Amino acid sequence: MAQSGNSMELPININAAQVTTAYGHRALPKLNEELQSEDLQTRQKALMALCDLMHDPEYIYKAMNIGCMENLKALLKDRNSMVRIKTTEVLYIMASHSVGRFAFLEHDIVLALSFLLNDPSPVCRRNLYKAYMQLVQVPRGAEEIISKGLISPLVWKLQGEVEEEFQELILDTLVLCLWEDATEALNSNVVPILKQKLISTNENIRSKAARALLNVSISRVGKKQVCQFDVIPILVHLLKDPVEHVRSNAAGALMFALVITEGKYAALEAEAIGPLLELLHSPMTVARLNATKALTMLAEAPEGRKVLQAHVPTFRAMEVEPHEKPHIAEALQRAARIAVSVIEFKP
């Protein structure tokens, strides 16, 4: 005869790691207390609950006011990898909101996170890179990363990380930091490392590396290094890339690098004029603008001016070309006028 009994196992639909959270005004204070618990599972459960709550900016603001940020900083040093993973996840979710970015700056989270750049857990590092990428969406965030001396470590991680997703996140962070100040990066071998990324099979990595080089080339030191490390022939090659935004960013990087004489002649030797002229017909306005300005730089060299004289009608047409957005039409027309004036210059 069959007998009934009580199983010692949890029902299959019960998650043992799920936490029962207090409701209302007690939710965050309770979780904040549990973050400090000696019990590992309690800390883990509290972090999982916070991952859900931190999607709401109001909860982020409350968390700042009750001391959560300092407790999260302490948990970044926890011996348990799952605790570190969930802590970095909470932080990158917070960094996606403006109030969370403010909390990062107020509580020096940027530096605390940096000690996990070499964490053995890939998930932990991914969360860290996501947090930095979110933070630099505002200039103060980029300035904070620069001021903490983290550009050099990020440049080396760009070279060392095998996962392409991680490389993309690091590039996203570096692009905006380099826009603010490229000095530390230029002292950290960034140009040859970005040169390697230009030949990646991943179109996003190629595009972001070209965009980073655009920002690097704003300074004269950056322009010189782009020439010194023979980056220009690769950028010219990318003008024929099958991906539109890769071509656009390559033209943008050339636009700055060709300001100096070495850049002009390196690009002429690499036969940049042809693909740049083709880019004038791109559906992307920014690509056309970058190409026009790069060609203007080449026209400053007698050899470039001679070739481009046959293409003045193309620029003349751009001078009167309409656009549904007046400011874009004005930018293109002004760039075309300057190009014509340089091409038709008589020494």
Automatic annotation (TrEMBL):
It comes from the Eukaryota. The lineage of its organism: Eukaryota, Metazoa, Chordata, Craniata, Vertebrata. HEAT repeats lie at residues 231-254. PROSITE patterns: HEAT_REPEAT (PS50077). It holds the Pfam family HEAT_2. One of its GO terms (cellular component) is radial spoke. Residues 28-148 form the Condensin complex subunit 1 C-terminal domain. Coiled coil: none annotated. It comes from Callithrix jacchus (White-tufted-ear marmoset). This is Radial spoke head 14 homolog.
